[in-house]
Amino acid sequence: DGGITQSPKYLFRKEGQNVTLSCEQNLNHDAMYWYRQDPGQGLRLIYYSQIVNDFQKGDIAEGYSVSREKKESFPLTVTSAQKNPTAFYLCASSRPGLAGGGDTQYFGPGTRLTVL
Amino acid sequence: EDKVVQSPLSLVVHEGDTVTLNCSYEVTNFRSLLWYKQEKKAPTFLFMLTSSGIEKKSGRLSSILDKKELSSILNITATQTGDSAIYLCAVVAYSGAGSYQLTFGKGTKLSVIP
Predict the structure, then answer these.
(1) Residues ≥6 apart with Cβ < 8 Å to B15
(2) CA-to-CA separations, A64 to A61, A84, A105, in angstroms, rounded
(3) What are the tens digits of pLDDT across the range B95-111?
(4) Which residues of chain A have pLDDT under 70?
């Protein structure tokens, strides 16, 4: 089955630790995205990548880092520099990227990160 | 700063009613407007609008963009309980040097009661 997978579903982290969230897609999509969702805030774009080995900052990139070494994978690292990391994180992919106007984005099931 | 505002923030209707959800935006170098439906976790794509005045339709849902008024509406006719969800509006804008900005509104929570 084609789709986007995110793991883990729930993640707990101690303050001061880095943690990496996984996102994999087998849809052969060029573009991938990371969003953060907080209650009452809607979705906010953290990073996006329109092509392998290239990525761009979104609205709230501070305290996060990404890599795009393979088309299928776009892992997000939440670093200890991120002041308020507890949130629901969603990964998405699409055929063309934002340069194409956005197009249909397919979302993964999300990872809920809690910092203790 | 780019801004996307949705109204109302929440709405309760009875099955069979018609609803209109609003999205207004203030962005520089507008590229497109996107509508999503979020039921439990992952949003699902509904429409992408780039041209003013052209209605996009899918079953009981339709949407239209008004670039002059910097807004879009999403209409749902003959609502069903399965339409209960948060409806998200997002705007894509070109931010220069090959980069794009995607800004979401806070969403409209629609509840359809039998």
Answers:
(1) B79, B80, B81, B112, B113, B114
(2) 6, 11, 21
(3) 777 777 888 898 999 99
(4) 1-2, 99-103
* Res B82 pLDDT > 60: yes
Write out the E strands in B39-84. Answer: 43-49, 56-58, 61-66, 71-76
Q: Are A47 and A31 in contact (CB under 8 A)?
A: no
Tokens at A109, concatenated: 């099931």
User: Could you tell me the two tokens for A38?
Assistant: 């907080």
Which chain B residues have any C-beta within 8 angstroms of a chain A C-beta?
31-32, 34, 36, 41-45, 48, 50, 88, 90, 92, 98-107
pLDDT band at B63 (very low <50, low <70, confident <90, very high): very high
